[in-house]
Design a protein that fits this description.
The complex is a heterodimer. Chain A is mostly helical. Chain A has one domain. Chain A is built from eleven helices and five strands; from the N terminus they run E-E-H-H-H-H-H-H-E-E-H-H-H-H-H-E. In chain A, the strands form two sheets. Chain A has a two-stranded antiparallel ribbon with strand order 1-2. Chain A has a two-stranded antiparallel sheet with strand order 3-4. In chain A, strand 1 and strand 2 form a beta hairpin. The radius of gyration of chain A is 20 Å and the shape is globular. By secondary structure, chain B is of the alpha+beta class. Chain B has a six-stranded mixed β-sheet. Chain B has seven helices and 13 strands. Helices cover 36% and strands 40% of the residues of chain B. In chain B, helix 6 packs across helix 7. Chain B has two domains: 188 residues, Immunoglobulin-like; 32 residues, no CATH class. The chains are: A mainly alpha, B alpha+beta. Chains A and B meet through strand 1, helix 3, helix 5, helix 9 and helix 10 of A and strand 5, strand 6, helix 5, helix 6 and helix 7 of B.
C-alpha cells in the first residue's frame, strides 16, 4: 500500500514509513532523543526531498515526544524546572546558531563547518559515553561479585577549583526532581551551547542534551530521558511552525504516517527502558551514535554515487 | 498595382495550397494519448499511459514526453581539503524540463541528423547543446556536470531514452504504433506535452502533439493548497494533531505506570 505525499510530491510505502517511525520512536522513548539525527538521513535515503524530510521530521517529533513526555511524567521522570531553564538557553542558542550559519554561508564554508562539527560532536559524545558506561558496568559487576571497588576513597575529596567556581555562580537553584543544585545561569548557558550546536547541525539536539545532563549536570538517567523529551517537545513545536509558515516544507501526511509508528514506538521504548539499567541504556545509545558517526564519516571520505543533490537538509 | 480580381485569385490559390498542406500533414501522423489526465489522489503510485497512432509505412517513430523548460538549481559535491566530499556550491541548469522521456523505434542518432535533433530537441546530444550550465570554467566542465545532471534525473526515473519499446504493425501504406509506459510517480503534477514524430531520410517529416495533465485531486489537493495559501493555520493544525496523536497513544498505553 502506498501513500502520495502532498508536499514531498512523491509516493512511499506504508509499512516502510510506519516501520521507520516505530524504530525512531523506540529510540526516543528509550533514550530521550528526538531521533532527528537518524530519521532525517533515512527519509532522504528513501527519496524525500531534504528540506521536507527535516521539517516533517520535526512535526513527527512533536507527536512522539508528547507521547514520551506524558509517559515519563506519569512515571515522575520529568524535571520541569530544569527543562524550562534548558529550554530558555536552547531557544537563545538556536537563534544565535542560525545567525552564525548565515555568516558562515556568506563566507562560503558553512557546509565544511557543519559536516566537521557533526562528525566531531557525534564521535566525541559517542566515544565518551561508551567508555564511561562500560566502566560503570564493570564496576557494578565487580561490586556485585564482592570484589573491592577500584576506587576506595579513604578521606573526603577536596573540591576542585572548577567545582568551587560553579558553586560561586549566582542563582544557585535546587532541582528537586534531579536531586542536584546548580546555578540556573550555568544550566541556561549549557542549554544555549547545545542550542548553537543543534542549529549549526540542523538537528533538535537531543543526543547532545542527554550527555550534557548526565555528565555535566549529574542528573540521574531516568530523569534525563523525561526532561530531555520535554525540552525537545517545545523546541520542535517552534521549528515545525516556522517551517510550515515560512518555508512550506512540512508534509502533514508524511508526519502523520511517521507518527503512527513513532508514538507507539515511544511507549514501547519507555516500557523497555524500565527494564534496562541506566548504564546499559547509555551503552546502547553510544553504540548507535558511533554507528551514525562512522556512516557520516564514510559518506565524507568515499566518492558519492551522484555528484548533484537537491538543496536543503543536513 | 494589383487588381481586385488578381488579389482574389492569388488569395484563393494560397488558401488552396494551405488546405492541401495541412490535409497532407494531418494524415501523416495521427496519435492519441490515453488517458489525457492523471489524477493524483492519496494512494497514487504512478499511472499507465498508452500512446497509439499511425504514420506512413517506412517512417520511424519518436515519442517524447516533456514539460516546459525552466531553471533548475542543484548543489554540487566536490572534495574539500583533498579528503572530504561535501557540497561545494550550486549550479544552475537552464532551460531544463522536469521530465524528459524519449521512446523511438531505432537509435535516434541512426535515424535523425544532428541539425534535426537540435531543431526538435530530441536526444541527449541536443539536450546537452541546448542547456546552459553556470558557473563553469570551460566546455569540459560543462560536459561533466551535464552528464551528472542526466544521471541524477535518470535515477529518479524522470529522464530516459529508450529504443525498441514501441510496437508497430505495417498495413499497406500505413504503419500503426502503440507505446505503453508506466508513468513515474516522481513526475510532479503539471501539464506535460506528448509529441509524436514521424521520421524518414534523417529528418522529421511530420509531428503531432497532445497534452497530458497530471493533477492533484481531493484531500491531497486540499492539504497542498492549505500548506501554501493558509500556512499559519496549516502549521497550527498540524502541531495540534501531532499533540493529540501523542496524547491519545499515551493514554492508550495508560502512560506507563510504575517507576524505574
Amino acid at each position: 500500500m502506498y501513500f502520495y505525499l502532498p508536499i514531498a510530491l512523491t509516493s512511499i510505502s506504508l509499512p516502510l514509513i510506519v516501520g521507520l517511525g516505530l524504530l525512531v520512536g523506540l529510540l526516543s522513548g528509550l533514550f530521550g532523543v528526538g531521533g532527528g539525527f537518524l530519521m532525517t538521513p533515512l527519509l532522504i535515503m528513501i527519496g524525500i526531498p531534504p528540506t521536507v524530510a527535516a521539517a516533517s521530521d520535526s512535526l513527527q517529533i512533536v507527536g512522539a515526544s508528547t507521547s514520551g513526555t506524558f509517559a515519563h511524567w506519569k512515571l515522575g521522570n520529568v524535571d520541569f524546572k530544569m527543562g524550562i531553564c534548558l529550554l530558555i538557553g536552547g531557544f537563545t542558542g538556536g537563534l544565535a546558531g542560525v545567525q552564525l550559519i548565515k555568516v558562515l554561508r556568506m563566507m562560503g564554508n558553512a557546509d565544511f563547518v557543519i559536516k566537521v562539527t557533526y562528525v566531531l560532536m557525534l564521535g566525541i559524545v559517542g566515544a565518551y559515553m561508551f567508555a564511561e558506561s562500560i566502566n560503570s558496568l564493570k564496576k557494578a559487576k565487580q561490586q556485585k561479585n564482592g570484589a573491592p571497588a577500584v576506587e576506595t576513597p579513604s578521606k573526603p575529596k577536596k573540591e576542585s577549583g572548577f567545582v568551587r567556581f560553579l558553586k560561586s555562580l549566582p542563582l544557585q537553584t535546587r532541582f528537586e526532581k534531579s536531586g542536584v543544585t546548580h546555578s540556573a545561569l550555568l544550566v541556561i548557558v549549557l542549554g544555549s551551547i547545545v542550542g548553537v550546536l543543534a542549529a549549526i547541525m540542523g538537528v533538535g539536539g537531543g543526543f547532545l542534551m542527554v550527555p550534557v545532563m548526565v555528565y555535566l549536570l549529574r542528573m540521574p538517567m531516568h530523569v534525563v530521558v523525561g526532561t530531555s523529551l520535554f525540552q525537545i517537545l517545545f523546541t520542535c513545536v517552534e521549528v515545525s511552525f516556522l517551517q510550515a509558515y515560512v518555508n512550506h516544507t512540512v508534509d502533514f501526511v508524511l508526519a502523520v504516517l511517521l507518527l503512527a509508528g513513532s508514538t507507539v514506538g515511544a511507549q514501547i521504548g519507555t516500557q523497555l527502558g524500565k527494564k534496562l539499567h541506566g548504564d546499559q541504556l547509555k551503552v546502547i545509545l553510544s553504540v548507535i551514535v558511533l554507528v551514525v558517526t562512522v556512516k557520516i564519516l564514510m559518506d565524507l571520505v568515499l566518492e558519492p554515487s551522484l555528484l548533484l543533490s537537491l538543496k536543503g537538509g543536513h | 498595382m494589383k487588381t481586385p480580381s488578381k488579389t482574389f485569385m492569388s488569395g484563393l490559390a494560397g488558401a488552396f495550397f494551405l488546405l492541401v498542406f495541412f490535409a497532407a500533414s494531418a494524415y501523416s501522423v495521427t496519435s492519441e494519448v490515453v488517458p489525457d489526465r492523471i489524477d493524483i489522489g492519496s494512494f497514487y503510485h504512478g499511472g499507465h499511459v498508452v500512446v497509439t497512432g499511425e504514420v506512413e509505412a517506412g517512417e520511424d517513430i519518436i515519442i517524447q514526453f516533456n514539460s516546459p523548460g525552466k531553471k533548475a538549481h542543484l548543489r554540487k559535491k566536490g572534495k574539500k581539503g583533498g579528503l572530504l566530499w561535501m557540497n561545494v556550491g550550486e549550479l544552475e541548469f537552464n532551460p531544463v524540463s522536469d521530465l524528459y522521456l524519449i521512446y523511438s523505434t531505432k537509435d535516434i542518432n541512426s535515424i535523425l541528423s544532428p541539425d534535426q535533433q537540435d531543431k526538435f530537441m530530441l536526444g541527449y546530444d541536443a539536450f546537452r547543446r541546448r542547456v546552459e550550465v553556470s558557473p563553469v570554467s570551460d566546455e569540459a566542465e560543462k560536459a561533466t556536470w551535464m552528464n551528472e545532471f542526466i544521471r541524477f534525473k535518470e535515477k529518479n526515473r524522470i529522464y530516459g531514452i529508450f529504443t525498441g519499446e514501441i510496437e508497430t504493425k505495417t498495413d499497406g501504406d500505413r504503419k500503426t504504433f502503440k507505446l505503453s509506459i508506466d508513468w513515474p510517480y516522481q513526475a510532479q503534477p503539471q501539464e506535460y506535452t506528448v509529441s509524436v514524430y514521424a521520421v524518414k531520410n534523417n529528418a522529421v517529416q511530420d509531428y503531432n502533439q497532445a497534452s497530458l495533465n497530471v493533477e492533484k485531486v481531493g484531500a491531497l489537493k486540499f492539504l497542498s493548497n492549505m500548506a501554501y495559501n493558509k500556512a499559519a493555520i496549516y502549521g497550527i493544525v498540524s502541531i495540534l494533531i501531532a499533540f493529540a496523536a501523542g496524547f491519545i497513544v499515551s493514554v492508550m498505553f495508560k502512560g506507563g505506570g510504575g517507576s524505574h
